[in-house]
Task: inverse folding
Protein backbone atom coordinates (compact mmCIF):
# COMPACT_ATOMS: atom_id res chain seq x y z
CA UNK A 1 0.00 0.00 0.00
CA UNK A 2 2.80 2.42 0.90
CA UNK A 3 4.46 1.74 -2.46
CA UNK A 4 1.21 2.58 -4.27
CA UNK A 5 0.88 5.85 -2.32
CA UNK A 6 4.50 6.77 -3.06
CA UNK A 7 3.99 5.96 -6.74
CA UNK A 8 0.83 8.09 -6.86
CA UNK A 9 2.62 11.04 -5.22
CA UNK A 10 5.55 10.66 -7.61
CA UNK A 11 3.17 10.59 -10.57
CA UNK A 12 1.39 13.75 -9.39
CA UNK A 13 4.71 15.55 -8.92
CA UNK A 14 5.76 14.55 -12.46
CA UNK A 15 2.41 15.75 -13.83
CA UNK A 16 2.71 19.07 -11.98
CA UNK A 17 6.25 19.45 -13.29
CA UNK A 18 5.06 18.86 -16.87
CA UNK A 19 2.26 21.42 -16.46
CA UNK A 20 4.87 23.91 -15.22
CA UNK A 21 6.99 23.15 -18.31
CA UNK A 22 3.92 23.64 -20.53
CA UNK A 23 3.23 26.99 -18.85
CA UNK A 24 6.81 28.09 -19.49
CA UNK A 25 6.50 26.87 -23.08
CA UNK A 26 3.41 29.02 -23.69
CA UNK A 27 5.10 31.93 -21.93
CA UNK A 28 8.06 31.71 -24.31
CA UNK A 29 5.75 31.13 -27.28
CA UNK A 30 3.79 34.30 -26.45
CA UNK A 31 7.03 36.24 -26.12
CA UNK A 32 8.24 35.37 -29.63
CA UNK A 33 4.85 35.41 -31.39
CA UNK A 34 4.48 38.76 -33.18
CA UNK A 35 1.37 40.92 -33.26
CA UNK A 36 -0.23 40.67 -36.68
CA UNK A 37 -3.38 41.30 -38.71
CA UNK A 38 -6.26 42.46 -36.54
CA UNK A 39 -3.89 42.80 -33.57
CA UNK A 40 -2.50 45.95 -35.19
CA UNK A 41 -6.02 47.32 -35.61
CA UNK A 42 -7.01 46.59 -31.99
CA UNK A 43 -3.80 48.26 -30.80
CA UNK A 44 -4.64 51.44 -32.76
CA UNK A 45 -7.23 54.18 -32.28
CA UNK A 46 -9.68 52.02 -34.19
CA UNK A 47 -9.78 49.54 -31.31
CA UNK A 48 -10.60 52.27 -28.77
CA UNK A 49 -13.27 53.66 -31.10
CA UNK A 50 -14.92 50.24 -31.28
CA UNK A 51 -14.86 50.05 -27.48
CA UNK A 52 -16.44 53.52 -27.16
CA UNK A 53 -19.40 52.37 -29.29
CA UNK A 54 -19.84 49.11 -27.38
CA UNK A 55 -18.70 47.27 -30.55
CA UNK A 56 -22.05 48.11 -32.15
CA UNK A 57 -21.85 47.38 -35.86
CA UNK A 58 -18.72 45.23 -35.41
CA UNK A 59 -19.64 42.06 -33.44
CA UNK A 60 -21.06 40.93 -30.11
CA UNK A 61 -17.87 39.35 -28.72
CA UNK A 62 -17.78 41.67 -25.71
CA UNK A 63 -15.37 39.67 -23.53
CA UNK A 64 -12.84 38.70 -26.18
CA UNK A 65 -12.89 42.15 -27.80
CA UNK A 66 -12.07 43.88 -24.50
CA UNK A 67 -9.29 41.40 -23.77
CA UNK A 68 -7.86 41.91 -27.27
CA UNK A 69 -7.66 45.67 -26.69
CA UNK A 70 -5.78 45.04 -23.43
CA UNK A 71 -3.31 42.39 -24.63
CA UNK A 72 -2.29 44.32 -27.75
CA UNK A 73 -1.26 47.24 -25.54
CA UNK A 74 0.33 45.61 -22.48
CA UNK A 75 3.12 43.12 -23.23
CA UNK A 76 3.25 41.43 -19.81
CA UNK A 77 -0.51 40.92 -19.64
CA UNK A 78 -0.37 39.49 -23.16
CA UNK A 79 2.29 36.86 -22.50
CA UNK A 80 0.96 35.80 -19.10
CA UNK A 81 -2.66 35.58 -20.27
CA UNK A 82 -1.51 33.57 -23.30
CA UNK A 83 0.45 31.21 -21.02
CA UNK A 84 -2.40 30.83 -18.51
CA UNK A 85 -5.10 30.18 -21.14
CA UNK A 86 -2.86 27.83 -23.15
CA UNK A 87 -2.01 25.79 -20.04
CA UNK A 88 -5.66 25.73 -19.01
CA UNK A 89 -6.64 24.41 -22.46
CA UNK A 90 -4.15 21.54 -22.17
CA UNK A 91 -5.08 20.91 -18.53
CA UNK A 92 -8.85 20.86 -19.01
CA UNK A 93 -8.67 18.81 -22.21
CA UNK A 94 -6.54 16.21 -20.41
CA UNK A 95 -8.73 16.18 -17.29
CA UNK A 96 -11.85 15.70 -19.39
CA UNK A 97 -10.48 12.37 -20.60
CA UNK A 98 -8.29 11.23 -17.71
CA UNK A 99 -10.24 12.58 -14.72
CA UNK A 100 -10.92 9.09 -13.33
CA UNK A 101 -7.22 8.23 -13.26
CA UNK A 102 -4.19 9.57 -11.45
CA UNK A 103 -2.55 12.44 -13.27
CA UNK A 104 0.33 11.35 -15.48
CA UNK A 105 2.88 13.42 -17.35
CA UNK A 106 2.22 11.65 -20.64
CA UNK A 107 -1.45 12.68 -20.57
CA UNK A 108 -0.55 16.37 -20.81
CA UNK A 109 2.28 15.86 -23.30
CA UNK A 110 0.08 13.81 -25.63
CA UNK A 111 -2.60 16.50 -25.47
CA UNK A 112 -0.27 19.39 -26.25
CA UNK A 113 1.37 17.32 -29.00
CA UNK A 114 -1.99 16.86 -30.73
CA UNK A 115 -2.86 20.55 -30.46
CA UNK A 116 0.52 21.61 -31.84
CA UNK A 117 0.41 19.17 -34.78
CA UNK A 118 -3.04 20.21 -35.97
CA UNK A 119 -3.39 21.89 -39.36
CA UNK A 120 -0.76 24.60 -39.81
CA UNK A 121 -3.44 26.91 -41.19
CA UNK A 122 -5.56 26.46 -38.06
CA UNK A 123 -2.51 26.97 -35.85
CA UNK A 124 -1.62 30.22 -37.62
CA UNK A 125 -5.07 31.68 -36.89
CA UNK A 126 -5.29 30.52 -33.27
CA UNK A 127 -2.00 29.96 -31.43
CA UNK A 128 -0.09 32.06 -33.99
CA UNK A 129 -2.36 35.11 -33.85
CA UNK A 130 -3.41 36.85 -30.63
CA UNK A 131 -6.81 37.95 -31.96
CA UNK A 132 -7.52 34.34 -32.93
CA UNK A 133 -6.12 33.02 -29.64
CA UNK A 134 -8.29 35.25 -27.47
CA UNK A 135 -11.39 34.21 -29.43
CA UNK A 136 -10.97 30.55 -30.24
CA UNK A 137 -8.73 29.16 -27.49
CA UNK A 138 -10.48 31.15 -24.76
CA UNK A 139 -13.83 30.15 -26.28
CA UNK A 140 -13.19 26.45 -25.63
CA UNK A 141 -12.31 26.81 -21.94
CA UNK A 142 -15.79 27.46 -20.42
CA UNK A 143 -17.22 24.73 -22.67
CA UNK A 144 -14.64 22.14 -21.59
CA UNK A 145 -15.00 23.14 -17.95
CA UNK A 146 -18.79 22.69 -18.05
CA UNK A 147 -18.49 19.28 -19.73
CA UNK A 148 -15.90 18.30 -17.10
CA UNK A 149 -18.28 19.46 -14.36
CA UNK A 150 -21.10 17.39 -15.86
CA UNK A 151 -18.95 14.25 -15.93
CA UNK A 152 -17.72 14.81 -12.38
CA UNK A 153 -21.25 15.32 -11.02
CA UNK A 154 -22.99 12.72 -13.17
CA UNK A 155 -23.82 10.45 -10.21
CA UNK A 156 -23.18 12.83 -7.30
CA UNK A 157 -26.17 13.51 -5.06
CA UNK A 158 -25.77 16.72 -3.08
CA UNK A 159 -27.49 19.95 -2.18
CA UNK A 160 -26.80 22.92 -4.43
CA UNK A 161 -25.46 26.04 -2.72
CA UNK A 162 -26.02 29.63 -3.81
CA UNK A 163 -22.33 30.33 -4.70
CA UNK A 164 -22.39 27.32 -7.03
CA UNK A 165 -25.53 28.58 -8.76
CA UNK A 166 -24.02 32.04 -9.16
CA UNK A 167 -20.75 30.58 -10.49
CA UNK A 168 -22.56 28.42 -13.06
CA UNK A 169 -24.68 31.38 -14.15
CA UNK A 170 -21.56 33.50 -14.71
CA UNK A 171 -19.90 30.59 -16.53
CA UNK A 172 -22.88 30.41 -18.89
CA UNK A 173 -22.78 34.14 -19.63
CA UNK A 174 -19.01 34.08 -20.15
CA UNK A 175 -19.14 31.19 -22.60
CA UNK A 176 -21.51 33.17 -24.84
CA UNK A 177 -19.56 36.43 -25.12
CA UNK A 178 -16.49 35.11 -26.91
CA UNK A 179 -17.26 33.60 -30.32
CA UNK A 180 -20.55 33.01 -32.17
CA UNK A 181 -20.50 29.26 -32.85
CA UNK A 182 -19.49 28.60 -29.23
CA UNK A 183 -22.44 30.76 -28.15
CA UNK A 184 -24.89 28.63 -30.12
CA UNK A 185 -23.24 25.41 -28.95
CA UNK A 186 -23.29 26.49 -25.27
CA UNK A 187 -27.04 27.12 -25.34
CA UNK A 188 -27.71 23.73 -26.98
CA UNK A 189 -25.30 22.03 -24.54
CA UNK A 190 -27.10 23.54 -21.54
CA UNK A 191 -30.54 22.49 -22.80
CA UNK A 192 -29.24 19.00 -23.63
CA UNK A 193 -27.70 18.70 -20.15
CA UNK A 194 -31.05 19.59 -18.53
CA UNK A 195 -32.84 16.87 -20.51
CA UNK A 196 -30.11 14.29 -19.75
CA UNK A 197 -29.92 15.02 -16.01
CA UNK A 198 -33.73 14.92 -15.70
CA UNK A 199 -33.30 11.19 -16.27
CA UNK A 200 -29.87 10.56 -14.70
CA UNK A 201 -29.52 12.85 -11.68
CA UNK A 202 -32.10 15.52 -10.82
CA UNK A 203 -30.11 16.78 -7.81
CA UNK A 204 -27.74 18.65 -10.14
CA UNK A 205 -30.49 20.31 -12.17
CA UNK A 206 -30.42 23.69 -10.32
CA UNK A 207 -26.76 24.23 -11.27
CA UNK A 208 -27.34 23.17 -14.88
CA UNK A 209 -30.42 25.39 -15.16
CA UNK A 210 -28.39 28.31 -13.79
CA UNK A 211 -25.73 27.67 -16.44
CA UNK A 212 -28.35 27.42 -19.20
CA UNK A 213 -30.05 30.66 -18.13
CA UNK A 214 -26.62 32.29 -18.22
CA UNK A 215 -26.05 31.05 -21.78
CA UNK A 216 -29.44 32.37 -22.89
CA UNK A 217 -28.71 35.80 -21.39
CA UNK A 218 -25.22 35.74 -22.94
CA UNK A 219 -26.60 34.73 -26.34
CA UNK A 220 -29.18 37.53 -26.25
CA UNK A 221 -26.41 40.00 -25.38
CA UNK A 222 -24.17 38.66 -28.15
CA UNK A 223 -26.73 38.60 -30.95
CA UNK A 224 -28.45 41.86 -29.98
CA UNK A 225 -25.63 43.59 -31.85
CA UNK A 226 -27.24 44.98 -35.04
CA UNK A 227 -24.41 43.59 -37.18
CA UNK A 228 -26.06 40.15 -37.06
CA UNK A 229 -29.35 41.52 -38.33
CA UNK A 230 -27.40 43.08 -41.20
CA UNK A 231 -25.77 39.71 -41.95
CA UNK A 232 -29.12 37.92 -41.98
CA UNK A 233 -30.63 40.56 -44.27
CA UNK A 234 -27.63 40.50 -46.63
CA UNK A 235 -26.58 44.07 -45.85
CA UNK A 236 -23.23 43.25 -44.22
CA UNK A 237 -20.26 43.42 -46.58
CA UNK A 238 -18.20 40.88 -44.60
CA UNK A 239 -20.62 38.22 -43.31
CA UNK A 240 -23.20 36.55 -45.49
CA UNK A 241 -25.95 34.09 -44.54
CA UNK A 242 -27.51 32.02 -47.29
CA UNK A 243 -31.08 30.69 -47.17
CA UNK A 244 -33.48 29.12 -49.62
CA UNK A 245 -32.50 27.58 -52.96
CA UNK A 246 -28.88 28.80 -52.84
CA UNK A 247 -28.23 27.29 -49.42
CA UNK A 248 -27.33 23.83 -50.76
CA UNK A 249 -24.89 25.34 -53.27
CA UNK A 250 -23.26 27.32 -50.47
CA UNK A 251 -22.95 24.21 -48.28
CA UNK A 252 -21.32 22.24 -51.10
CA UNK A 253 -18.95 25.09 -51.96
CA UNK A 254 -17.80 25.74 -48.37
CA UNK A 255 -17.33 22.05 -47.60
CA UNK A 256 -15.58 21.10 -50.85
CA UNK A 257 -13.21 24.09 -50.90
CA UNK A 258 -12.40 24.63 -47.23
CA UNK A 259 -14.15 22.71 -44.48
CA UNK A 260 -13.12 19.15 -45.39
CA UNK A 261 -9.50 20.30 -45.74
CA UNK A 262 -9.24 22.19 -42.45
CA UNK A 263 -11.14 19.58 -40.43
CA UNK A 264 -9.95 16.29 -41.91
CA UNK A 265 -7.28 16.32 -44.59
CA UNK A 266 -4.79 18.62 -42.84
CA UNK A 267 -5.13 16.94 -39.43
CA UNK A 268 -3.52 13.69 -40.47
CA UNK A 269 -1.91 12.83 -37.12
CA UNK A 270 -5.19 13.22 -35.21
CA UNK A 271 -7.15 11.32 -37.87
CA UNK A 272 -4.57 8.52 -37.99
CA UNK A 273 -4.66 8.04 -34.19
CA UNK A 274 -8.49 7.97 -34.16
CA UNK A 275 -8.64 5.50 -37.04
CA UNK A 276 -5.94 3.16 -35.73
CA UNK A 277 -7.47 3.00 -32.25
CA UNK A 278 -10.97 2.43 -33.66
CA UNK A 279 -9.68 -0.44 -35.78
CA UNK A 280 -8.17 -2.04 -32.67
CA UNK A 281 -11.46 -1.55 -30.78
CA UNK A 282 -13.49 -3.13 -33.59
CA UNK A 283 -11.37 -6.30 -33.69
CA UNK A 284 -11.39 -6.89 -29.95
CA UNK A 285 -14.02 -9.62 -30.22
CA UNK A 286 -14.56 -12.44 -32.69
CA UNK A 287 -17.39 -12.12 -35.23
CA UNK A 288 -19.16 -14.18 -37.86
CA UNK A 289 -18.14 -13.99 -41.52
CA UNK A 290 -20.55 -11.21 -42.54
CA UNK A 291 -19.71 -8.98 -39.57
CA UNK A 292 -15.99 -9.66 -40.06
CA UNK A 293 -16.27 -8.58 -43.70
CA UNK A 294 -18.04 -5.36 -42.66
CA UNK A 295 -15.33 -4.70 -40.06
CA UNK A 296 -12.67 -5.32 -42.69
CA UNK A 297 -14.33 -2.88 -45.10
CA UNK A 298 -14.66 -0.17 -42.42
CA UNK A 299 -11.07 -0.77 -41.29
CA UNK A 300 -9.85 -0.44 -44.87
CA UNK A 301 -11.64 2.91 -45.32
CA UNK A 302 -10.46 4.26 -41.96
CA UNK A 303 -6.86 3.22 -42.45
CA UNK A 304 -6.67 4.27 -46.12
CA UNK A 305 -8.02 7.77 -45.59
CA UNK A 306 -6.06 8.44 -42.40
CA UNK A 307 -2.83 7.11 -43.93
CA UNK A 308 -3.44 9.32 -46.97
CA UNK A 309 -4.11 12.38 -44.79
CA UNK A 310 -1.12 11.76 -42.51
CA UNK A 311 1.58 10.62 -44.93
CA UNK A 312 0.67 10.68 -48.62
CA UNK A 313 -1.40 13.75 -49.58
CA UNK A 314 1.64 16.08 -49.84
CA UNK A 315 3.54 13.68 -52.11
CA UNK A 316 1.25 14.19 -55.09
CA UNK A 317 0.84 17.41 -57.03
CA UNK A 318 -2.60 18.16 -58.48
CA UNK A 319 -1.29 20.99 -60.68
CA UNK A 320 -1.77 18.96 -63.86
CA UNK A 321 -5.44 18.23 -63.14
CA UNK A 322 -8.69 20.13 -62.79
CA UNK A 323 -8.28 21.63 -59.29
CA UNK A 324 -12.02 21.82 -58.62
CA UNK A 325 -12.44 18.16 -59.63
CA UNK A 326 -9.65 17.18 -57.23
CA UNK A 327 -11.30 19.17 -54.43
CA UNK A 328 -14.65 17.48 -55.09
CA UNK A 329 -13.08 14.00 -55.06
CA UNK A 330 -11.17 14.64 -51.84
CA UNK A 331 -14.23 16.10 -50.13
CA UNK A 332 -16.28 13.02 -51.14
CA UNK A 333 -13.54 10.79 -49.72
CA UNK A 334 -13.75 12.71 -46.44
CA UNK A 335 -17.53 12.14 -46.28
CA UNK A 336 -17.01 8.40 -46.88
CA UNK A 337 -14.46 8.47 -44.04
CA UNK A 338 -16.93 10.17 -41.66
CA UNK A 339 -19.65 7.63 -42.52
CA UNK A 340 -17.21 4.77 -41.88
CA UNK A 341 -16.15 6.42 -38.63
CA UNK A 342 -19.74 6.60 -37.40
CA UNK A 343 -20.55 3.03 -38.47
CA UNK A 344 -17.44 1.69 -36.72
CA UNK A 345 -18.81 2.92 -33.37
CA UNK A 346 -21.38 0.12 -33.54
CA UNK A 347 -18.55 -2.38 -33.03
CA UNK A 348 -17.01 -0.61 -30.01
CA UNK A 349 -17.76 -2.89 -27.05
CA UNK A 350 -17.28 -0.30 -24.31
CA UNK A 351 -20.58 1.55 -23.84
CA UNK A 352 -19.03 4.52 -21.94
CA UNK A 353 -16.43 4.94 -24.69
CA UNK A 354 -19.03 4.68 -27.45
CA UNK A 355 -21.28 7.23 -25.69
CA UNK A 356 -18.44 9.73 -25.33
CA UNK A 357 -17.35 9.30 -28.95
CA UNK A 358 -20.90 9.88 -30.18
CA UNK A 359 -21.09 13.03 -28.03
CA UNK A 360 -17.77 14.32 -29.39
CA UNK A 361 -18.81 13.65 -33.01
CA UNK A 362 -22.19 15.35 -32.45
CA UNK A 363 -20.43 18.33 -30.83
CA UNK A 364 -17.96 18.61 -33.71
CA UNK A 365 -20.80 18.57 -36.25
CA UNK A 366 -22.85 21.13 -34.29
CA UNK A 367 -19.89 23.51 -34.04
CA UNK A 368 -19.28 23.27 -37.79
CA UNK A 369 -22.95 23.47 -38.79
CA UNK A 370 -23.36 27.30 -38.65
CA UNK A 371 -20.48 27.73 -41.11
CA UNK A 372 -22.28 25.63 -43.71
CA UNK A 373 -24.48 28.66 -44.45
CA UNK A 374 -22.38 31.52 -43.05
CA UNK A 375 -19.48 32.96 -45.02
CA UNK A 376 -16.60 33.62 -44.86
CA UNK A 377 -15.27 30.34 -43.46
CA UNK A 378 -11.60 30.26 -42.47
CA UNK A 379 -9.20 27.83 -40.75
CA UNK A 380 -9.86 29.36 -37.31
CA UNK A 381 -13.52 28.38 -37.62
CA UNK A 382 -12.44 24.72 -37.54
CA UNK A 383 -10.58 24.97 -34.22
CA UNK A 384 -13.50 24.02 -31.97
CA UNK A 385 -14.38 21.08 -34.20
CA UNK A 386 -10.78 19.83 -34.22
CA UNK A 387 -10.63 20.26 -30.43
CA UNK A 388 -13.42 17.70 -30.06
CA UNK A 389 -11.60 15.43 -32.50
CA UNK A 390 -8.59 15.66 -30.20
CA UNK A 391 -10.83 14.68 -27.28
CA UNK A 392 -11.98 11.65 -29.27
CA UNK A 393 -8.37 10.72 -30.06
CA UNK A 394 -7.41 11.01 -26.38
CA UNK A 395 -10.38 8.89 -25.28
CA UNK A 396 -9.40 6.16 -27.71
CA UNK A 397 -5.72 6.28 -26.73
CA UNK A 398 -6.72 6.12 -23.05
CA UNK A 399 -8.89 3.06 -23.70
CA UNK A 400 -6.25 1.29 -25.78
CA UNK A 401 -3.53 2.11 -23.25
CA UNK A 402 -5.63 0.58 -20.46
CA UNK A 403 -5.79 -2.64 -22.48
CA UNK A 404 -2.05 -2.47 -23.15
CA UNK A 405 -1.25 -1.95 -19.47
CA UNK A 406 -3.22 -5.05 -18.56
CA UNK A 407 -1.13 -7.07 -20.99
CA UNK A 408 2.22 -5.34 -20.55
CA UNK A 409 2.95 -4.35 -16.96
CA UNK A 410 6.09 -2.46 -17.97
CA UNK A 411 3.96 0.52 -19.05
CA UNK A 412 6.29 1.28 -21.95
CA UNK A 413 3.37 2.82 -23.82
CA UNK A 414 3.73 6.15 -21.98
CA UNK A 415 7.15 6.94 -23.48
CA UNK A 416 5.75 7.48 -26.99
CA UNK A 417 3.47 10.38 -25.93
CA UNK A 418 6.30 11.85 -23.84
CA UNK A 419 8.59 11.96 -26.88
CA UNK A 420 5.79 13.14 -29.18
CA UNK A 421 4.76 16.06 -26.93
CA UNK A 422 8.31 17.11 -26.14
CA UNK A 423 9.36 17.10 -29.80
CA UNK A 424 6.23 19.07 -30.79
CA UNK A 425 6.97 21.80 -28.26
CA UNK A 426 10.64 22.08 -29.25
CA UNK A 427 9.78 22.15 -32.95
CA UNK A 428 7.05 24.80 -32.69
CA UNK A 429 9.06 26.97 -30.32
CA UNK A 430 12.03 26.83 -32.72
CA UNK A 431 9.84 27.83 -35.68
CA UNK A 432 8.17 30.68 -33.81
CA UNK A 433 11.46 31.94 -32.38
CA UNK A 434 12.82 32.31 -35.91
CA UNK A 435 9.69 34.27 -36.88
CA UNK A 436 9.92 36.42 -33.75
CA UNK A 437 13.59 37.19 -34.37
CA UNK A 438 13.00 38.41 -37.92
CA UNK A 439 9.92 40.38 -36.87
CA UNK A 440 11.90 42.07 -34.09
CA UNK A 441 14.31 43.64 -36.61
CA UNK A 442 11.64 44.80 -39.05
CA UNK A 443 11.16 48.28 -37.49
CA UNK A 444 14.92 49.00 -37.56
CA UNK A 445 15.09 48.13 -41.27
CA UNK A 446 12.09 50.36 -41.99
CA UNK A 447 13.55 53.28 -40.02
CA UNK A 448 16.87 52.93 -41.85
CA UNK A 449 15.15 53.18 -45.25
CA UNK A 450 13.00 56.15 -44.16
CA UNK A 451 16.09 58.02 -42.98
CA UNK A 452 17.59 57.46 -46.44
CA UNK A 453 14.40 59.00 -47.91
CA UNK A 454 13.56 55.90 -49.93
CA UNK A 455 10.04 56.05 -51.34
CA UNK A 456 9.74 52.28 -51.63
CA UNK A 457 10.24 50.56 -48.28
CA UNK A 458 11.12 46.86 -48.29
CA UNK A 459 10.31 44.53 -45.39
CA UNK A 460 11.24 40.88 -45.03
CA UNK A 461 8.51 38.29 -44.81
CA UNK A 462 8.86 35.92 -41.87
CA UNK A 463 10.85 32.71 -42.58
CA UNK A 464 7.94 30.48 -41.50
CA UNK A 465 5.07 32.89 -42.07
CA UNK A 466 2.61 30.01 -42.53
CA UNK A 467 2.68 29.66 -38.72
CA UNK A 468 1.44 33.22 -38.20
CA UNK A 469 -1.58 34.95 -39.64
CA UNK A 470 -1.38 38.01 -41.87
CA UNK A 471 2.11 39.17 -40.93
CA UNK A 472 2.75 40.41 -44.49
CA UNK A 473 -0.61 41.77 -45.75
CA UNK A 474 -1.10 42.43 -49.45
CA UNK A 475 -1.45 46.07 -50.69
CA UNK A 476 -5.17 45.68 -51.38
CA UNK A 477 -5.90 44.79 -47.75
CA UNK A 478 -6.82 47.20 -44.95
CA UNK A 479 -4.14 45.67 -42.72
CA UNK A 480 -1.48 46.81 -45.22
CA UNK A 481 -2.36 50.45 -44.48
CA UNK A 482 -2.70 49.72 -40.74
CA UNK A 483 0.83 48.30 -40.69
CA UNK A 484 2.17 51.33 -42.58
CA UNK A 485 0.64 53.63 -39.98
CA UNK A 486 2.00 51.48 -37.17
CA UNK A 487 5.50 51.74 -38.67
CA UNK A 488 5.06 55.50 -39.36
CA UNK A 489 5.42 55.06 -43.13
CA UNK A 490 3.77 57.99 -45.00
CA UNK A 491 0.90 56.48 -46.99
CA UNK A 492 0.63 59.11 -49.71
CA UNK A 493 4.29 59.25 -50.70
CA UNK A 494 5.65 55.79 -49.91
CA UNK A 495 5.09 52.19 -50.95
CA UNK A 496 5.53 49.17 -48.70
CA UNK A 497 6.71 45.92 -50.24
CA UNK A 498 7.09 42.61 -48.38
CA UNK A 499 9.83 40.51 -49.93
CA UNK A 500 10.47 36.75 -49.51
CA UNK A 501 12.78 35.92 -46.61
CA UNK A 502 15.20 34.09 -48.92
CA UNK A 503 15.72 37.29 -50.95
CA UNK A 504 16.02 39.67 -48.01
CA UNK A 505 19.84 39.88 -48.02
CA UNK A 506 19.76 41.19 -51.60
CA UNK A 507 17.55 44.10 -50.56
CA UNK A 508 19.56 44.80 -47.41
CA UNK A 509 22.58 45.75 -49.51
CA UNK A 510 20.75 48.80 -50.82
CA UNK A 511 20.39 50.47 -47.43
Result:
Amino acid sequence: MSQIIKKSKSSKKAAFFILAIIFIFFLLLATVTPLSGDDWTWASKIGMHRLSTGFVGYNGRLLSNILEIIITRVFFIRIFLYAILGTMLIGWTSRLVFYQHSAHAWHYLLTIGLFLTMSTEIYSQTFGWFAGFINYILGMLPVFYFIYWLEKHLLVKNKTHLPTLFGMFILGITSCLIIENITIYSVVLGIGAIVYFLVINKSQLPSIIAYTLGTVLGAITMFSNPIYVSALSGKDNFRHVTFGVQMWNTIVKIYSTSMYKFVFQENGVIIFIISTCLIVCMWQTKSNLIVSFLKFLLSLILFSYSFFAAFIRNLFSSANFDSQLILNILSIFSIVFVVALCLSLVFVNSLPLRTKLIFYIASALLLSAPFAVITPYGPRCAFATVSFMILAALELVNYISSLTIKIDHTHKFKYMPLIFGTFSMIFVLGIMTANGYVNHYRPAAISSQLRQRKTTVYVSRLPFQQYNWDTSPMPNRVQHLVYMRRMHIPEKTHNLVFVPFKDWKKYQKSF
About this structure: The two ends are 72 Å apart (CA to CA). The first helix runs from residue 2 to 32. The beta strands are 240-241, 374-375, 456-460, 495-499. The chain is about 70% helix and 5% strand.
